[in-house]
Amino acid sequence: MPSSADPLARALALARRGRFTAAPNPRVGAVVVADGEIVGEGWHRRAARLA
Q1: Which of 5, 40, 45, 49 could pair covalently with 32 via S-S, beta carbons 3.0-4.6 A apart?
Q2: Does 2 sit behind a cis peptide bond, omega within 30 degrees of 0 on the bond before it?
Q3: What are the boundaries of each domain within the chain?
Q4: What is the pLDDT of residue 12?
Q5: pLDDT digits (tens, 9 = 90+) for 16-51
């Protein structure tokens, strides 16, 4: 089973992908782990433009 730091490091790396596109929102990365395996991941890709 991977250590708890591995999914956290992956989430931080994913959050960095939104560096230039997520503002003014925070950069967010997420990793879903089940039984020690990463089963899902994602990040805040871009800020929405409201009318």
Answers
A1: 40
A2: no
A3: 5-43
A4: 95
A5: 999 888 888 899 999 999 998 999 999 998 888 776
